[in-house]
């Protein structure tokens, strides 16, 4: 069984309902008007008088339904909810944004919103993110982002403590306990603008007796609340002034406008007053025009533009031409503005058949919200043995928010952030924020974080622990340079100077340091990290070439290499023959007439599988294949530059002829 109360400016409405598989069924309701001055503009002005009215409603429903109510669901007037926008920006660290950075940024924005709110005795009942920005561009989530600067804008909601505490006093005074508390516009939204429709930009206007509450939905959430201090009572008072009627009779006349049957009433002088519908509409139309004009202005202020549709609820809007005037003032087609009751809502079943009209949307919405436990804004938790009444509007209420609402000193409860550091990196100022406090926290004995969500009845224990000291190494902010030689990747850490003195990558940066490094390296430094530099392969054997240079894509000789640059190696003007001679390939040594001489063998040379002459120039990584041809004794005389005729020739002591082949170490004698 569900028992819901809507404690309004003019009336108390009690609703008894039962859960259905899809929705609720209204079993009974009771409406009672307050004694005069018990409520003013939705605020409980006289607690005992309001308690008396609630008790009467409760008793009437209990008697008719043979039940005793011990708990109730109700709502706080949305007109008391204040929203304040806060924003903050921070330089993004060289590493990617993490959760701690986001939380710190949100805390700064929330602190700004709290400072903007001038009333100290207000509950900060939650906040919703409006947008995240990275370098001015909107992003959905900051975590993992890189850039120069991150920003956040959020909307924080506040409720005056006196409003909540007065409502608690009434509920307790009526012999009831509170099992569910929401906001009136939230209850109405849940009933007529369910979550799947909140992706649309819809304005809900609850026109009561003293005020008109406004809530705006967009992108799946309720993004803003507002109110204007004008509603149905302004219309009643205008009727009373025009025809000299008591407020009670003025209400009768106003409520009769919709039917067109205006009753004859006596004025304060006791004289009967007959009022025609045309005359009455001439009286109330300027008031309706004034109220709807203010509603339109408030919607534009909250939403910034014309919404897609407007839903109007509440008894104060039932007079003719009210919704039409709203449509005109907000520049919407009349079919985009609707006065909603509960009679056409598919998931509300009315057993009484009498709960008809827009005035039932809020009380039935409270019952409906409690049935599904949605938009509940009241939890009771315990923090370090202190009971905290936690208001929750966003569904993301956590330990941090509970501490903030309860007025705890954050430094005493969770510790202090560590000091940040500021340093220069190649002339650019870098600010590293201090680390957030890291308190030891448990929820119901289980380890938890500061941002763990809370549920009703949770017991929290917190021991403060200051944030860890900021420790940043040189290698955390200066990365190795990368370069490519013949498309092979190499890495080298640049030279880094701290305060003009060279330091290693593992050194810690201190507050006030000036860090400098170059975005390039010398060719000599690059050579040190290359495997061996330049090679030539001869018949499968590698020979190192040291006489080479580094060139860029335009064949320009380089002295320094920039980060990310691609370079090639080029040997400095050497031919195949010169290199073969340098490595002593293609020569044999023999003894001629007891003297050691070197002879050059005839050769067939292939460079990278192509036959070439000895004059062909070499490049790094070239591959040479050398096939030696036979060196004969006749070639020896060519070397000696004289004719072999008339000589006696011996090879290794044995007679030889000109066609004999020479080999390494042979001994040749030539005699006349």
Which class do the helix and strand fractions yield?
A: alpha+beta
Just name the CATH architecture of one domain. 2-Layer Sandwich
Instruction: Give the CATH H-level superfamily of one domain.
Output: ATPase, nucleotide binding domain
Strand order of the largest sheet: 14-13-12-17-18
In DSSP terms (H or I, runs of 4 or more residues), the helix count works out at 15
Helix share bin:
10-25%
**Tertiary shape:** rod-shaped
Beta strands, count: 47
The rounded distance between the terminal residues' Cα atoms is 139 Å
Major sheet, described briefly?
A: 5 strands, mixed
The CATH topology annotation of one domain reads as Nucleotidyltransferase, domain 5
Over all CA atoms, what is the radius of gyration?
A: 46 Å
Averaging pLDDT over every residue, what do you get?
85
Can you tell me the CATH class of one domain? Alpha Beta
Enumerate the spans where pLDDT stays under 50 for 5 or more consecutive residues. Answer: none
Could you tell me the strand content as a percent range? 35-45%
What descriptors fit this protein?
alpha+beta; Nucleotidyltransferase, domain 5; Ubiquitin-like (UB roll); five-stranded mixed sheet; 25% helix
């Amino acid at each position: 069984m569900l028992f819901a109360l809507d404690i309004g400016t003019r009336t108390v409405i009690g609703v008894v309902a039962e859960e259905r598989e899809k929705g609720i069924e209204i079993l009974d309701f009771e409406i009672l008007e307050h004694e005069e001055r018990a409520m003013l503009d939705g605020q409980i002005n006289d607690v005992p008088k309001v308690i008396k009215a609630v008790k009467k409603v409760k008793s009437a429903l209990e008697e008719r339904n043979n039940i005793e109510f011990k708990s109730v669901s109700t709502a706080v007037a949305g007109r008391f909810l204040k929203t304040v926008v806060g924003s903050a920006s921070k330089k993004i660290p060289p590493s990617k944004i993490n959760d701690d950075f986001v939380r710190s940024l949100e805390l700064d924005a929330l602190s700004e919103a709290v400072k903007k709110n001038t009333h100290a005795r207000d509950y900060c009942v939650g906040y919703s993110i409006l947008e995240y920005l990275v370098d001015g561009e909107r992003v959905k989530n900051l975590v993992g982002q890189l850039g120069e600067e991150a920003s956040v804008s959020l909307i924080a909601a506040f409720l005056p403590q006196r409003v909540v505490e007065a409502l608690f006093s009434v509920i307790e005074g009526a012999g009831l306990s509170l099992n569910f508390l929401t906001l009136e516009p939230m209850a109405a939204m849940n009933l007529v603008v369910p979550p799947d429709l909140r992706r649309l930009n819809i304005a809900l206007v609850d026109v009561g007796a003293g005020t008109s509450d406004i809530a705006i939905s967009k992108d799946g959430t309720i993004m803003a609340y507002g109110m204007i201090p004008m509603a149905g009572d302004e219309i009643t008072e205008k009727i009373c002034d025009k025809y000299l009627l008591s407020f009670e009779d003025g209400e009768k006349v106003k409520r009769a406008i919709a039917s067109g049957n205006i009753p004859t009433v006596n004025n304060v002088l006791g004289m009967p007053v007959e009022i025609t519908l045309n005359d009455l509409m001439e009286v109330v139309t300027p008031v309706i025009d004034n109220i709807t004009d203010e509603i339109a202005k408030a919607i534009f202020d909250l939403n910034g533009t014309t919404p897609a549709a407007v839903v109007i609820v509440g008894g104060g809007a039932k007079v003719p031409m009210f919704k039409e005037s709203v449509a005109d003032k907000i520049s919407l087609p009349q079919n985009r503005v609707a006065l909603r009751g509960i009679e056409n809502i598919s998931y509300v079943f009315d057993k009484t058949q009498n709960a008809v009209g827009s005035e039932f949307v809020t009380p039935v919405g409270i019952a409906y919200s409690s049935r599904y436990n949605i938009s509940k804004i009241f939890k009771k938790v315990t923090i370090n043995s202190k009971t905290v009444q936690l208001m929750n509007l966003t569904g993301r209420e956590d330990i941090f928010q509970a501490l903030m609402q309860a007025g705890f000193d954050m430094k005493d409860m969770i510790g202090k952030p560590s000091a940040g550091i500021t340093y220069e990196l190649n002339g650019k100022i870098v600010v590293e924020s201090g680390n957030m406090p890291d308190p030891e926290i448990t929820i119901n004995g289980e380890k938890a974080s500061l941002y763990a969500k809370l549920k009703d009845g949770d017991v929290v224990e917190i021991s403060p622990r200051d944030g860890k000291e900021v420790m940043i190494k040189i290698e955390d902010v200066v990365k190795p340079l990368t370069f490519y030689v013949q498309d092979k990747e190499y890495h080298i850490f640049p030279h880094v100077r701290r305060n003009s003195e060279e330091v290693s990558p593992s050194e810690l940066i201190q507050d006030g340091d000036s860090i400098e490094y170059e975005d390039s390296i010398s060719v000599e430094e690059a050579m040190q990290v290359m495997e061996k530099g330049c090679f030539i392969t001869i018949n499968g054997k590698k020979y190192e070439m040291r006489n080479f240079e580094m060139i860029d894509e335009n064949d320009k000789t380089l002295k320094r290499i920039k980060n990310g640059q691609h370079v090639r190696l080029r040997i400095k003007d050497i031919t195949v023959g010169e290199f073969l001679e340098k490595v002593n390939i293609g020569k044999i040594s023999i003894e001629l007439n007891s003297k050691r001489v070197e002879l050059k063998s005839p050769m067939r040379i292939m460079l990278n599988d192509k036959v070439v002459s000895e004059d062909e120039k070499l490049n790094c990584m070239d591959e040479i294949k050398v096939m030696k041809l036979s060196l004969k004794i006749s070639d020896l005389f060519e070397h000696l530059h004289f004719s072999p005729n008339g000589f006696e020739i011996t090879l290794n002591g044995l007679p030889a002829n000109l066609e004999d082949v020479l080999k390494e170490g042979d001994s040749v004698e030539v005699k006349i």
